Amino acid sequence: MINRIKEYRKINNFSQQKLASILNISRQTLSNIKNQKQVPSLIIGLKLSRVFSVDVNGLFQLKP
Prior knowledge:
- The protein is mainly alpha-helical.
- It has a single domain, classed as lambda repressor-like DNA-binding domains (434 Repressor (Amino-terminal Domain)).
- It has five helices and two strands, in the order βαααααβ.
- It has helices at 5-11, 16-23, 27-34, 42-52, 56-59; strands spanning 2-3, 60-61.
- Strands 1-2 form a two-stranded antiparallel ribbon.
- α2 (16-23) crosses α3 (27-34).
- The model has no long low-confidence stretch (mean pLDDT 94).
């Protein structure tokens, strides 16, 4: 799965720690999701979508 978390995090001026705190997850979990070492749960994906005000499809895409 390809994600654009880093891009949207920078656009919104969130540190990894700040975004992880908003999502109620650890910074390490957020880093693992961003680096494609972990697939986010549906709830985390929806929370990210809400925080960044973008559609989930704008954040995540399946690899071809």
